[in-house]
């Protein structure tokens, strides 16, 4: 009986993904035919060196412009894009950046887009490309080759409960927990957020800057530290609804990703248009 249980647990480990994986874990997966590696940095940096078989992807391809803000693309568009990247429904996708600009936020946004459309096995490389180079620079595991993927057969199954709009947020102020992923100077209205006319934050929302969840080298903090931030400081309950927002969707996607994929919160929603919509309207409530 114990032997069968051990086999079952091993099987679950083999066919399930972790939200953040180490370079060593990724290296062990390189020969997996279901593995799809996506590099979220810009093309020029990608061409200077990347993980073998990685595919360069612009997070902007998962979004479209609506006035002053951007929104996630339609389910059919994301399905087509995912297929062009070689993704199947049973693929294991690993995303990473080069720890410059907002690479890691692009990774979490793409993860959001894929998970919201039904892909189950998605991970982000902890420490990004710099940690990979540190481990395997001299093991012939740095590539400059372009990979052309075989078209995948991914079929999207959109979860309409993840993304919410302005009216949904407006109706739930003071009723559900909300967290903001921008730096505190934007939250408190001491500095103007890029592309946002008005100052301040949504009433009752707590400040929860996305960068505080990582160390200086973009490695995710220990679970105990994350729980101290989200549970103790932000007063969140993993079994109750949470809404996360930011400037324009990218920063909030990281809070969403950590809460749902790593800490296993049950009901986290993201206000994709965020302050690029809310803060540019004259009739939406803001406080400092």
From TrEMBL:
Q: Which Pfam families match?
A: Rhodanese
Keyword presence, Repeat: yes
Q: Which CDD domains match?
A: TST_Repeat_1
Check the UniProt entry and state the signal peptide residues, or none.
1-21
UniProt keyword Hydrolase present: no
Q: Which InterPro entries match?
A: Rhodanese-like_dom, Rhodanese-like_dom_sf, Thiosulfate_sulfurtransferase
Instruction: Enumerate the UniProt keywords alphabetically.
Output: Repeat, Signal
Tell me the ranges covered by the Rhodanese domain, including all copies: 31-137, 172-287
Q: Which domain of life is it from?
A: Bacteria
Question: Per its record, how is this protein called by name?
Answer: Thiosulfate sulfurtransferase
Q: Which organism is it from?
A: Sulfurimonas aquatica
């Amino acid at each position: 009986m114990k032997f069968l249980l051990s086999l079952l647990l091993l099987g679950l480990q083999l066919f399930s993904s972790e939200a953040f994986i180490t370079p060593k874990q990724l290296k062990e997966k390189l020969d997996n035919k279901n593995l799809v590696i996506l590099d979220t940095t810009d093309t020029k940096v990608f061409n200077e060196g990347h993980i073998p078989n990685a595919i360069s992807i612009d997070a902007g391809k998962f979004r479209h412009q609506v006035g002053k803000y951007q929104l996630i693309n339609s389910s059919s568009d994301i399905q087509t894009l995912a297929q062009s990247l070689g993704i199947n429904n049973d693929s294991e996708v690993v995303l990473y950046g080069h720890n410059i600009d907002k690479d890691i936020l692009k990774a979490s946004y793409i993860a959001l887009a894929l998970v919201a459309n039904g892909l189950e096995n998605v991970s982000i490389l902890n420490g990004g490309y710099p940690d990979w180079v540190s481990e395997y620079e001299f093991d012939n595991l740095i590539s400059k080759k372009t990979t052309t993927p075989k078209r995948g057969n991914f079929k999207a199954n959109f979860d309409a409960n993840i993304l919410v709009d302005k009216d949904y947020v407006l109706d739930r102020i003071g009723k559900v927990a909300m967290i903001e992923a921008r730096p505190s100077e934007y939250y408190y209205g001491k500095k103007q957020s890029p592309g946002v006319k008005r100052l301040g934050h949504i009433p009752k929302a707590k400040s929860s800057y996305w960068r505080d969840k990582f160390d200086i080298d973009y490695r995710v903090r220990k679970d105990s530290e994350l729980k101290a931030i989200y549970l103790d400081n932000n007063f969140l309950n993993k079994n109750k609804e949470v809404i996360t927002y930011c400037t324009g969707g990218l920063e909030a996607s990281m809070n969403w990703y950590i809460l749902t994929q790593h800490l296993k919160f049950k009901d986290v929603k993201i206000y994709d248009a965020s302050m690029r919509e809310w803060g540019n309207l004259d009739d939406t409530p803001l406080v400092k």
